[in-house]
Automatic annotation (TrEMBL):
Classification via PANTHER family: LOW MOLECULAR WEIGHT PHOSPHOTYROSINE PROTEIN PHOSPHATASE (PTHR11717:SF35), LOW MOLECULAR WEIGHT PROTEIN TYROSINE PHOSPHATASE (PTHR11717)
InterPro entries: LMW_PTPase, Ptyr_pPase, Ptyr_pPase_sf, Tyr_Pase_low_mol_wt_mml, Tyr_phospatase_low_mol_wt
Gene Ontology MF annotations: acid phosphatase activity; non-membrane spanning protein tyrosine phosphatase activity
Keywords: Cytoplasm, Hydrolase, Protein phosphatase
Task performed by this protein: Acts on tyrosine phosphorylated proteins, low-MW aryl phosphates and natural and synthetic acyl phosphates.
Domain of life: Eukaryota
EC number(s) recorded for this UniProt protein: 3.1.3.2, 3.1.3.48
UniProt-annotated catalytic positions: 16, 127 (proton donor)
Record-given protein name: Low molecular weight phosphotyrosine protein phosphatase
Species of provenance: Copsychus sechellarum
Gene: Acp1
Residue ranges annotated for the Phosphotyrosine protein phosphatase I domain, each copy included: 9-153
Keyword Hydrolase among record annotations: yes
GO cellular component: cytoplasm
EC class (word): hydrolase
Length: 155
C-alpha cells in the first residue's frame, strides 16, 4: 500500500525489538522511503514501560553507526488496527499477539515472526538479555537480514 506501516514487537521492548526497529528505520532512511513507512516497536508485557533499551543493545547499535531514542511501551489495541505488519521475535510473542489480536474488533495487522524473512532461515530471534555482547551482535545481524528481505518484499 502507498503508506505501509510496520510495528516491531518483542516481550520487554528493551533488547531485540529496539534493535530491529532502529535497523529497519535506518534501511528505510538509506532508501529514502521515510514517507512510506511508520516504524515503531512495543512490548507484549508492561514490565519495562518508559525504559530506554538495554545498554548492550545501544552499544551494539552504536558500533554499527545507528542511534535510537526509543523508550519501551506496551502494545495497544490501536496498534492492531493501524499497523499493516506486526513482526515478532519468537513463538511466545506470536502466541501472545495472536491472543491479543483476537480481542480487537477490526485487527488489520498481519502478525508474523520477523524470522520468516531470514534468507538464512533462522526463524527465531533469541532474547540476548541473559547473554553477552556477541549475542546482541547475533540479534543485530539477524534483524538486518530479515529487515532487508522484508523491505525488499514490501517496497
Amino acid at each position: 500500500s502507498e503508506n505501509s506501516l510496520e510495528s516491531l514487537v518483542s516481550i520487554g521492548n528493551i533488547c531485540r525489538s529496539p534493535i530491529a526497529e532502529a535497523v529497519f528505520r535506518k534501511l528505510v532512511s538509506d532508501e529514502k522511503l521515510e514517507h512510506k513507512w511508520r516504524t515503531d516497536s512495543a512490548a507484549v508485557s508492561d514490565w519495562n514501560v518508559g525504559r530506554f533499551p538495554d545498554s548492550r543493545a545501544l552499544s551494539c547499535l552504536r558500533n554499527h553507526g545507528i542511534e535510537t531514542a526509543h523508550k519501551a511501551r506496551q502494545i495497544t489495541k490501536e496498534d492492531f488496527q493501524t499497523f499493516d505488519h506486526i513482526l515478532c521475535m519468537d513463538e511466545s510473542n506470536l502466541r501472545d499477539l495472536n491472543r491479543k489480536s483476537n480481542q480487537v474488533k477490526d485487527c488489520k495487522a498481519k502478525i508474523e515472526l520477523l524470522g520468516t524473512y531470514d534468507p538464512q532461515k533462522q526463524l527465531i530471534i533469541e532474547d540476548p538479555y541473559y547473554g553477552n555482547e556477541k549475542d546482541f551482535e547475533t540479534v543485530y545481524e539477524q534483524c538486518l537480514r530479515c529487515c532487508k528481505a522484508f523491505l525488499e518484499k514490501y517496497h
